[in-house]
Protein 1
Amino acid sequence: MRNLRLVLVRWMFVVAFGLLMPNALPAQTSLSGVISDVQPRMVKLYGAGGVQGLEAYQSGFVVSNEGHILTVWSYVLDADVITATLDDGRKLPAEVIGMDPRLEIAVLKVDAQDLAHFNLDEAVALEPGHKVLAFSNLYGVAAGNEPTSVLRGIVSAKSDLAARRGAFETNYRGKVYVLDAMTNNPGAAGGALTNRKGQLAGLLGKELRNSQTNTWLNYAIPVSELVQAVVDIRAGKLRSAARDETVKKPKDAPTLAALGVQLVPDFLPKTPPFVESVRPMSPAAKAGIRPDDLILFVNDQLVPSHKQVVEELTFIDRVDMVRLTIQRGQDLLDVQLSLEP
Amino acid sequence: MSNTRSWYLLHFLCGAMTFIPFASEILAQDVAAAVLSAEQQRIEAIAKASRSAVAVFANGGNGGGSGVVISPDGYALTNFHVVQPAGSYMKCSMNDGRLYDAVIVGIDPTGDVAVIKLLGRDDFPTAKMVDSDQVKVGDWCFAVGNPFLLATDFQPTVTYGIVSGTHRYQYPAGTLLEYADCIQTDAAINPGNSGGPLYDANGDLIGVNGRGSFEKRGRVNVGVGYAISINQIKHFLGCLKSGRFVDHATAGFNVGTSEDGRVLVSNILESSDAYRRGLRYDAEVVSFGGRQIDTTNAFKNVLGIYPKGWRVPLTYRYDGKMVSTHVRLTGVHAEEELLELVQRKPKQAPQPKPDDKAPGEKEPEKMPGEKKPPPDRPMPKLPTPGEKPKASPPPPEVAKLIQARRGYANYYFNLRNRERVWKAASANADFSKLQGEWQLTGQHSRGGAVVITLANDKVEGIFPAEKATIDLAKDLDEQLAPAGSGGLLVALHLWRQLLVEGPEKFGDVYYYGTAPQRDIDGLSDVLIATRNVVEMRLAFDPSGGRLQLLEMISDPDEDPCEVRFSDYREVNGRQFPHSLEVRRGDFVYGKLTLNEIKLTPSDEGASK
């Protein structure tokens, strides 16, 4: 019987090595090659922040031939000028063309063609046990033409993100790859998760700390969860309205005052449109808007700043409904306001 | 029936038992030979590397860190911030199960490196220092050390990872501890790993761990550790063995990146060597230290890997011309400033406490995150909990190797090296009995005869263009004859005095360490001798130990007078140079070829 156990242990040992080792070796010889192939697609992003605990940088990667960059949606993008530093050291202004608040992602664009990029349609799906590489500018270690940092690890689990008040505070509610490497450091959000061959698999998420256990989660959002949103944003949805001078404004448009909403004073180039107060009995009060709500969309048009909320309202006729998408804590709400009694 | 069944079952089991080993054999064969050999190679690399790793425990149980032995006689590398609280003497354990006494040798406070010497053996296992510039992102690497002071059982901890970044520049934490050109790894680097080795996949030494990025995550590994590159340490090693506080360098100019991505000089000191070599504001720095410079960080990376006093190649473009030259680097800190910084206690950041609890079981309320330490701090040295440690005096045989002196980490090592260098240089060349007048007669390469007379009380020379005398009663730094040489007569006078008096009597003579010299392969030992407001740097041939280059510095803001000695031949039974090449800055004064050398013994000289 003892013999049998010994044999079994030996057998298990061999199976374990048989499964785990062969992958490692061919990759090991070419790991630096794989990494230098991925690096040109990585982007270092710089924007708002810089005050205590809020880094003014994050990561991103190029996803199109036309200079589109996928990253996470965060306060870093609340800047007048967002700078994208490419792998070759070029610094280009980047424009937020759209974002999906439910996924907390944003698509930026720089004026550059034919950049090395990941094709989201070719992204791979991972399973627990798969070996991965995480590329990001964590801690802002890299600057200029210095390549981003690379960590290696494995997928520990593919799981629903247990996002709820008191645990992980995030809007994202889908599947994530939980990783065994410390990938989600400051500045790493928006980085790329690839398999050992350098094929894109996920987007490194924002830093999440479980406030109950005081532990940090290392995770990436599978590309399959994001790809439709990126297509939508590039197709013109989930973005700020693009209008030229010829678009006629209605004679009479609703104003914030008429709707009963007072926003936080507009003191920054891009002040996030947080609600300061709501006038009792106003349309906004009737729709249930509360102080501290953040207005994300007005009639499905992205409004990343106070100014853009004001501007967007001028294109709505007073008799029409005003649809707002607001963020309250970790929840997203759609509400309708009407000036008609 | 039941018998039959059990017999059948038994047979089945036996069959299974014979089958299973058989199956495992098959599977073993299925593992590719390359896999098995890679596994074996990793095991061997770790075994080899673990032998040279050191766990450093400060005297009196006052914390500790890690280190690595690099020479059979016990020289080992660690971090400055590990030895700083330990003082001049510490205990080191290795995985042979032995505890060794060790003494401090030298300190590079800015680069956070210290050299210590383990005692008791001349056959220590050593790590091989390889070329860390060959390290690539994605290479496997591993750290061996003493995280959380776990190695009290003589078993160092091994953590494996990849190289996450190379040539990283990390700004100074506080006023000291700049990490330039360092290696970034995701191998776990925790408090206590400080000073320990980072090895490549072969188990060869590529860096010394010492720093991590933490911020709000607290002072444990978050996958971002930094190692000082071993190439940088190779530059500093000779200086660190001198027992001095070794300073980092400044070039005398700053650079910035222009709109079009060129690296331009943004300001420059007129007193710097770079200025004297023609570098000006707005010149484009093309390469520095042999590396192409395309960003400000790249420049800072290069600057950060050299000790004060080295000459480093520089190529710049100015006024349409490309110029390749060498510039002498000066110190980052004034001498007093460096002393003060070395003695200042480091500010302690919140840190995990190593004790009976495993690292993972720390009380959540003490978990970092509540307080945000500044980013990129050096790993704290680990204090052991409990009562205040009592430092005991070193045992007598260890105390012999410790000699305190202002400006030195351990003057003992400076003296030993000075003796070593002088002994090699004066082999078959003892001039102590030749205190009389020296007369050197020869030819100047530009034509004309030269006669130089050197004595304790008389210095004069006849040169093709002039006749010159030095008044030894006056300051020597004002008497720089012959014209254009930068002070050849003073240089030769001091050279002779050093030869006849020896370093003990000459004045302040100390061992600088090693530095590269123009047109000399390898690193030369350098002595610095000061007398009568004049400083001399003496560089010795790396192979034979003869004096090869003398620089007489009359004014630190001016070019020195350089004399290159060669063609050593016997005179009066002593090796004496017959060729003296003299230059100042870019101006070559000329080569003196000696054909008659008269060295008078002491009594005759005195009677003259």
Note: Chain B touches chain A through 48 residues (CB under 8 Å).
Protein 2
Amino acid sequence: MTPPDAPVHRLPLTTPADRYRAMRLVRGFEETALDLVREGVIAGGIHPCIGQEAVAVGVCAALRENDLITSTHRGHGHVLAKGASPHRMLAELAGRVTGLNRGRGGSMHAADFSLGILGANGIVGAGAPIAAGAAWARAGAGHDTVVATFFGDGALNQGVLLETLNLAAIWRLPVLFVCENNGYATTLPADGSVAGGPLGRARGFGIPALAVDGMDCEAVLTAAEQAVERAAAGGGPTFLECATYRFEGHHTMERRMKLSYRTAEEIAAWRERDPLPRLAASLAPGEPDRIDAEVARLLADARAYALASPAPLPDAACEHLYADGLRPRAGAAP
Amino acid sequence: MTKLSYTKALNRALADALAADPSVCVLGEDVGAGMAGPTLGLQARFGADRIVDTPLSEQAFVSMAIGAALAGRRPVVELQIPSLLFLTFEQLANQAHKLSLMTGGQARVPLTCLVPGSGSREGWAGQHSDHPYSLFAHVGIKTAVPATPSDAYGLLTSAIHDDDPVIVFAPAAAMAVREDVTRPLEPVPLGQARTARAGHDVTVVALGAPVPTALTVAEELAPEFSVEVLDARTAYPFDWPALNRSLERTGRLVVIDDSNRTCGFAAEIIATAAQEMPLAAPPRRVTRPDGAVLPFALDLDRALQPDARQLAAAIRAVMK
């Protein structure tokens, strides 16, 4: 069965309307994905980034085409904002052969190397050293590539992230460290678990560090543009602490649990600061509605595409394990 | 004819790869000075941008090497102590090894991890004497354990050329070996065993430093039995057809394996041979004990390593 071709997708991030469209795309994608989790089409679950769209879009809007990113378990926004096809991304979440990763990665490992997306990652903090290595390699080959690595406040307590901050600083690597501080490492409040604070962590290594309103796409863009410019010019890494919030739970399983680590008041207060209406307010009257309708059509199409795509064949479960096609022995002897 | 040392062979493999391909680079602790041996003199020849001295941040620099590999380099990371593989198990097993599958074949991770001085170094105690090649074979990472200088050259060269992560264990006991090299050094394919000694009564499978032990025992027993020694060269992939061919002749199997016994390299070979290959007698293995932690005192250290006496006894037992 020949998988359908995904339509060619372009996601310009040049104007505020472009960036609003991108944030709406991420929001709508997550809503569609939540539906598909409920419907049982997406196995396992997802870590929705609803509420955090401004960070993904603001940072990716500052990146150039050949710049790279690494992402996190809560990575749909980063991957889409860097230009991945929502059709193929949704197909990946649904475990289809047309998915970005041919159905082998799912939500937490989505990657599109052709777009400089070196992958989401299921281990907290693990993307940062990979980003630093890619940045080192590109700089060593004479390119001005910048690598943005997204991570949450939980990653600030991972040793490997601290090691990476040191290496990036001493080697002046063109890395943009983007901390999405959404207040919680799963359920553990960031306040009180990061000694010295997020900015203090970076400044301890001599890395310029900036607090940014992560609910304001344009503020994120401005900060990220300066960081990208500096890194591309050989000025080394920058650390952005983007204060943000996830409106949904840590993951979709949380919906079935009655957890009390966040109050309804706190969630409501952050919802008041929703980055989408905030940017919409700066657009021409009618423009947000027009974009919303356009994105809704696109996502309906992406959903249909994912559902129409075939699942991989069980016989191919070990394909792509090795670059040279080494076939591991089967678990049951022939 | 020249005598080639094992360490010099590794050094030449690195130098040849660095000279042939500008994407090859080396990252590790003290690699500039060449403290562990294999990188001696390379920084002077290839520069500090390609022979990169890293701070003591194994997890970050192994992961950086993965990122560099994704961005087109062929990095070699040197880990001076085998137990650093435990510290970087996340990076090697959970990142480097999984990226190709998880990305549906998009990611290529041509990373080589060189571990000079694996296994017992005699007198370096519990945290410097591990030899965890079975662990990485279990994970499915390509795992080479060269026994001779020419194989050290050949397997390290193939590891660097390979598009997947490969771990090359250079056993401490093998690094002292010197070899008369009569043929040009060349790449040795990963997954191709070598018949180190032909025989027709019993097959001894060995890997790394126990290969010369097996050859010595085979000579000692020559008046009684004709012992074939199969040097596996790589723990993973393992050359099953070569083992099958050998067992078709001998029908008897002993494995000497410097791993802990449970789930070790020898266990897999014997299980597969029992299930799929012709055996005329129950096979035997000689390994480290279960859960071995090498104690410091030399007699205790040696007591836990598989040795010639144990191997000879195992051969006699399968020949009964």
Note: The mean pLDDT of chain A is 95.
